[in-house]
Amino acid sequence: MYQLIAHEGADAFLGRAEAWLHTREAEHNLHLSLSYARRDSGTTEPDTLFGTVEAESEVLGCVIRTPPHTWGVGSGTST
Q1: What is the pTM of this model?
Q2: Does residue 54 contact residue 3 with C-beta atoms inside 8 Å?
Q3: Looking at the DSSP assignment, which residues form a beta bridge with residue 7?
């Protein structure tokens, strides 16, 4: 079963998803850039969301929303 897990902020999100995002860095550079910028600034706007999609404790995807931007969805490879 898939679960969407919301993280408290960019730091918590990166702690869970950073290694996974780096496995396909070129495709996930927007997620990484926005997450690093939010973490480094220490600010989080209302309606910001950092989440991972997981199954059996494995990260399979991620979703972020950093206003004023819309949703950003990252997915893994299909095997």
Answers
A1: 0.85
A2: yes
A3: 50
Q: In what order do the strands lie in the sheet with 3-7?
A: 3-7, 49-55, 58-65, 71-75
Q: What are phi and psi of 52, to 5 degrees?
A: -120, 145
Three-state SS annotation for the chain: CCEEEEECCHHHHHHHHHHHHHCCCCCCHHHHHHHHHHHHHCCCCCCCEEEEEEECCEEEEEEEECCCCCEEEEECCCC
Phi, psi of 3 (to 5 degrees): -130, 140
Per-residue model confidence as pLDDT tens digits over 41-63: 987 788 889 999 999 999 999 99
